[in-house]
Amino acid sequence: MKIPANENEITLYCFVGEAIWKIQIVEQALSCSITLKMNPAATKEQADKVLKQHQNYTLGKAINIASKEKLYSSALQDELYTFLDQRNWLVHNAMAESLHDKNWENEKDELFQKIKSISEKAESIQHKIEYDMINFCTSKGKDMSKILTLLKLQEQGVRIKKA
């Protein structure tokens, strides 16, 4: 017999789902960025082929490649490693810690906030990677003004319709 999830469980599942989703967006942004920065002269077809390989990378592998290739500033690279630790906690330890927590009712809000902060951090890192890609493309002579405008609108909460 299945027991329906209670309000706390629904909140937990929503927060975890949101965090995992946003982590995957960071993984995708890293894959695109690594592909772009390591293959700046590639044709679209060549870049798509390389991107397909990079999309198989775990977050940790992508961060390690970026570090090895020195693709980001040391500040962003450090932030990525800190984020990886947070992601690893969420994926590998959050449930175990919560199951063993005898004060679930007292600690649940702290757990919810910790998970929510991972979502917020993922979104922040995603934007930093996007701006880094814009700066990289600009340094290669590409006009990124339209993309920059769209990104700023999106950050302000304006929904952008796909054409």
Cα-to-Cα separation, first versus last residue: 47 Å
Task: Kindly name the structural category.
Answer: mainly alpha
**DSSP helix fraction:** over 70%
Tally of distinct domains: 1
Report Rg.
Answer: 19 Å
Outline the low-pLDDT stretches.
none
Strand % is under 5%
Biggest sheet features: none
Query: In sequence order, what are the helices and strands, one letter per element?
Result: HHHHHH
Mean pLDDT: 91
Q: Which descriptor suits the 3D outline?
A: elongated
**Would you report the number of β strands?**
0
Number of helices: 6
Q: Would you kindly provide a written description of the structure presented here, covering whatever features stand out?
A:
With 163 residues, this protein is mostly helical. It has one domain (7-155). 77% of the residues lie in helices and 0% in strands. It has 6 helices and no strands. The protein has helices at 7-38, 44-54, 59-68, 74-99, 104-139, 145-155. Helix 1 runs parallel beside helix 3 (59-68) and helix 1 (7-38) runs parallel beside helix 5.
Overview in brief:
By secondary structure, this protein is an all-alpha fold. The chain has helices at residues 7-38, 44-54, 59-68, 74-99, 104-139, 145-155. Keywords: Coiled coil.
Helix/strand layout:
Elements: H1 7-38, H2 44-54, H3 59-68, H4 74-99, H5 104-139, H6 145-155
Helix pairs in contact: 1-2, 1-3, 1-5, 3-4, 4-5
What descriptive keywords fit this protein?
77% helix; mainly alpha
